[in-house]
Write a structure and sequence with these properties.
The protein has helices spanning 2-22, 27-53. Helix 1 packs antiparallel against helix 2. The protein is elongated. The protein has 2 helices and no strands.
């Protein structure tokens, strides 16, 4: 459940990054969005892997 929540949040942040990219927002803001999405993806993968071990 937690891994799926992180995955949904990551998709949301990637959507925001894509929308910012199409509107010519500052590049550092797009980088921050992609970075946060990457952290959420890492947490999602870690949560899914840990859940399989139990």
């Amino acid at each position: 459940m937690v891994g799926a929540s992180f995955a949904v949040l990551a998709v949301g942040w990637l959507n925001l990054a894509f929308r910012a990219w199409t509107r010519d927002v500052a590049h550092w803001l797009i980088g921050v969005s992609v970075g946060v999405a990457g952290v959420f993806i890492a947490f999602a993968v870690g949560s899914f892997r840990r859940a399989r071990q139990l």
